[in-house]
Design brief:
Layout: E1 3-11, H1 17-23, H2 26-40, E2 45-53, H3 63-66, E3 71-74, H4 86-101, E4 106-110, H5 112-120, E5 124-127, E6 133-141, H6 143-149, E7 155-162, E8 164-168, E9 174-175, E10 177-178, E11 186-189, E12 193-196, H7 204-216, H8 222-232, H9 238-249
Parallel strand pairs: 1-2, 1-3, 3-4, 4-12
Antiparallel strand pairs: 5-8, 6-7, 6-10, 9-11, 11-12
Length: 267
């Protein structure tokens, strides 16, 4: 019988209408992302995803609800994790509570979610003076990351779309990697919390859509849109990371049929 993965998906943003109309909102995108990992790696897992609008409704799992889930996944957001606004403060306090008091519940943070975890646990998040990191980027793995991922590879390729970054690692966490623009590309608290700065759930179409939308309002120049739209099409390790998230949340209860070092995919 398939293992049911019971996941609370904390929706920290709604994509632009042009993205939603073609690629779906974050609930759709994350479901498709995780399902693609299940299919590619032949995981005997069925998804049960409960979405929570943490922005407009400030909805979060209850104490009773935390007993009925395997993990929490926090999405990306156009907002800044260091902002002093009610919904971000509420989310930060909730994540601090869960991490400190519910060690059974696995946490996965993506981009903004990665930064929220860092803020909640005593790290620091700032705006990067070097600018934005965009499209498929390879980050160099730390020795801790190589041990966690069980790989001899030196780097992982991931879609990026951020300017804020974690400038100080919280206590009891280790850094998973770095690039020349961003020194903390992921965080790990073994057997409990896993985060990445990039967007493994993003397809090339999503990244190109964001670049196009921001280009139309003058955030990106035509040259930037063209350059990074091409880079968005490069192969990356998103689906492999999705498999890693599922195995992490389920604490090794399921294993992929195909454990290869060649993890890159085209989305």
């Amino acid at each position: 019988m398939s293992r049911i993965l019971r996941l609370a998906l904390l929706l920290a943003d709604t994509p632009a209408p042009s993205i939603v109309s073609k690629q779906g909102d974050y609930r759709v995108q994350f479901t498709r992302f995780l399902q693609s990992s299940i299919q590619k790696y032949k995981l005997d897992v069925r998804l049960k995803i409960d979405p929570y609008d943490v922005v407009n409704e400030m909805a979060l799992p209850t104490e009773e609800g935390l007993k009925d889930i395997d993990g929490i996944m926090i999405t990306g957001s156009a907002a800044s994790a260091y902002s002093d606004v009610p919904w971000i403060n509420n989310l930060t306090d909730f994540m601090k509570h869960v991490i400190n008091n519910h060690p059974r519940v696995r946490i996965v943070g993506i981009c903004f979610g990665h930064q929220i975890v860092a803020r909640a646990m005593g790290g620091n998040v700032i705006k990067n003076p070097l600018g934005m990191e965009l499209a498929v980027t390879e980050f160099e793995l730390t020795e801790d990351a190589k041990q966690f991922f069980k790989t001899n590879r030196n780097g992982i390729k991931i879609q990026e779309m951020h300017q804020d970054y974690v400038s100080e690692i919280p206590p009891n966490f280790v850094n998973l990697g770095s690039t020349s623009m961003c020194s903390v590309q992921g965080l790990l608290k073994p057997s409990h919390v896993l985060t990445v700065q990039g967007h493994p759930e993003f397809t090339a179409a999503v990244v190109k859509g964001i670049l196009k939308a921001r280009g139309e309002i003058g955030v990106f120049s035509p040259e930037v849109v063209e350059k990074y739209s091409a880079r968005a099409e490069l192969e990356h390790d998103g689906i492999w990371l999705g498999k890693t998230f599922i195995e992490f949340i389920l604490d090794g209860e399921v294993k992929a049929d195909d454990e290869t070092e060649d993890a890159t995919c085209h989305m």
